[in-house]
């Protein structure tokens, strides 16, 4: 493919479909009763939550002259940003080339291709940095042969974060008050983008980050991860470490149990990140009686019918939702113990800036 091979007509009218998602009260048992929390249903807007980031990154690059009209956009993605870029590419008139990996769900591959994306799949993880590093290596090869191509680099692009300003404005319109915000963290974009404006409105607002077990973002060791969306095997620079009051690592069994409870009891549900933030939001509503708690459900359940909601998949991966943890194990700092299931830590630091050496008395926790 050459940069000029595909010419797309921009369809700016699509931008009217961005965001403006509903906020719903969740009261389903997670896993037990709780006072309820608010969830922003990002899966109900065209292109999902990441369409906000995708449009922001492409418009920013267009303004700076880094993305020429009609030039291709190349990005590495595990899915959601890909859908957002497919949307932004159609709206702004850019062909989209995505680098995914073998773990990308077949339904997501079909959806991306249906929206006109050219999809490249890497078939093995890199020895260091896993699938993400393998995808980035292929992306660099593509950039070398597509000289006009623009790489948004969602992990480090400040326009990813900027794209969530409207999400924050919607939340301040939809809520009278907010005490606790719970956000999943992958690139760090949406948590970083909404916490600033929300704290200007509610200065005492607590921010709880939710990461995946085996993710390096908050200083845990890198391990193979089953969950997609939240978590990372690199250290994205968009994570607003200083803004978080605490972090929870959630395992796949807890996320599956939570997604299924949501689907059964509150109708709305989603994937790994939705299950994880719902579990932690219910916990926060329980331990902070009277507090208003809100979270963001990044996408809906459809992509996960063959994983989170499939008994054969969960059995094959040794996940028993009925054995999922019902409360977090507390650790004093991120390196005190490796999180195998749901773990909570109220000390949050950037692992690249302040490597933490475990206190000898804490090493055996
Ligand atoms: C489904 C899903 N949930 C949550 C996240 C995390 O969001 P962020 O990248 O804004 O931290 C992502 C990021 O890719 C995602 O795809």
UniProtKB/TrEMBL annotation:
SUPFAM superfamilies (alphabetical): Tryptophan synthase beta subunit-like PLP-dependent enzymes
Keyword Amino-acid biosynthesis set for record: no
Record has Transcription regulation as a keyword: no
Residue span, Tryptophan synthase beta chain-like PALP domain: 17-299
InterPro entries, per database record: Cys_Synth/Cystath_Beta-Synth, TrpB-like_PALP, TrpB-like_PALP_sf
Highest rank taxon of the organism: Bacteria
Cofactor(s), names only, from the UniProt record: pyridoxal 5'-phosphate
Swiss-Prot/TrEMBL keywords: Pyridoxal phosphate
Pfam families cross-referenced by the UniProt entry: PALP
Entry protein name: PLP-dependent cysteine synthase family protein
The organism of origin for this protein: Streptomyces bugieae
């Amino acid at each position: 493919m050459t940069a000029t091979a595909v010419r797309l007509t921009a369809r700016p009218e699509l931008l009217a479909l961005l965001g403006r998602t509903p906020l719903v009260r969740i009261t389903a048992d997670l896993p037990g009763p709780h006072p309820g929390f608010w969830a922003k249903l990002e899966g109900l807007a065209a292109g999902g939550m990441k369409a906000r980031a995708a449009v922001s990154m492409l418009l920013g690059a267009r303004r700076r002259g880094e993305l020429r009209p009609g030039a291709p956009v190349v990005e590495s993605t595990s899915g959601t940003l890909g859908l957002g870029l497919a949307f932004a590419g159609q709206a702004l008139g850019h062909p989209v080339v995505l680098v995914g990996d073998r773990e990308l769900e077949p339904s997501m591959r079909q959806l991306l291709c249906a929206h006109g994306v050219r999809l490249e799949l890497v078939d093995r993880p890199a020895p260091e940095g896993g699938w993400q590093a393998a995808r980035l290596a292929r992306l660099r090869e593509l950039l070398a042969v597509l000289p006009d191509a623009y790489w948004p680099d969602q992990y480090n692009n400040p326009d990813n974060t900027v794209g969530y300003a409207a999400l924050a404005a919607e939340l301040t319109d939809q809520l009278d008050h907010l005490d606790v915000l719970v956000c999943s963290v992958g690139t760090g974009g949406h948590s970083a983008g909404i916490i600033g404006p929300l704290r200007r409105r509610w200065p005492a607002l607590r921010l709880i980050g939710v990461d995946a077990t085996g993710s390096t973002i908050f200083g845990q060791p890198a391990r193979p991860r089953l969950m997609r969306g939240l978590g990372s095997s690199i250290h994205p620079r968009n994570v607003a470490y200083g803004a978080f009051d605490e972090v929870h690592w959630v395992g796949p069994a807890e996320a599956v149990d939570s997604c299924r409870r949501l689907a059964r009891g509150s109708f709305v549900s989603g994937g790994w990140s939705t299950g994880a933030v719902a579990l932690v939001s219910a916990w926060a509503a329980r331990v902070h009686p009277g507090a208003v708690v809100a979270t963001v459900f990044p996408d809906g359940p459809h992509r996960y019918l063959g994983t989170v909601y499939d008994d054969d998949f969960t059995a094959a991966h040794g996940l028993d939702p009925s054995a999922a943890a019902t409360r977090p194990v507390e650790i004093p700092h991120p390196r005190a113990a490796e999180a195998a299931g749901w773990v909570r830590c109220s000390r949050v630091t950037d692992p690249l800036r302040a490597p933490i050496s475990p206190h000898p008395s804490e090493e055996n926790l």
